[in-house]
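Sanity check

After download, print the first record. It should look like this:
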Amino acid sequence: MSYRDSRDTALSAFFSEDNGRREPEKQVALNASSGGIGPLPVITTLFAAPLNVVSTSIDTRDFRGSTNNLLNFTSIVNLPLGISVTLNFEITRSINSGAPVNVGATYTFSTLVDVLEAEAFSFQFLDADVVPGFYTYSVQLSTNSIIDITPGASIGNAVLSVLAVKE
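Expected structure tokens:
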């Protein structure tokens, strides 16, 4: 076997034949956005609607088959002296500009602060076996979040990334 033959054989593991052309078997897309929210007032009752922290979109319309979409959310929660917070984060997903629906669990950040501080908060979610489409994912502060005693909490440096990989 010549060098060229061995290289072509090795590459054939990553490509498939389609109408005489070589097409990659794995399709991958990545997108990310940044955002934040705050300073937030004292919130001791439910508020009318969730507050958007960050959103990003991913286009898988050209993918052949379903995808696994891995979401990664990272942020810094800035907290003033003497604050008590329970921040509940939810993920919404819309497809092709349709109505958003909640996906995944509720992710909770909770603390009582004695000194001025900033804490990192992050989570991941796998949206598995998703049909091709144009998706918008949003991380929102849920209506049942509580900020007690002192106003001024904020969520900064929030980044939401989506990695879509064809199954």
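If your output differs, re-run the checksum step. Summary of this record's structure: The domain at 26-166 is CATH 2.60.120 (Jelly Rolls).
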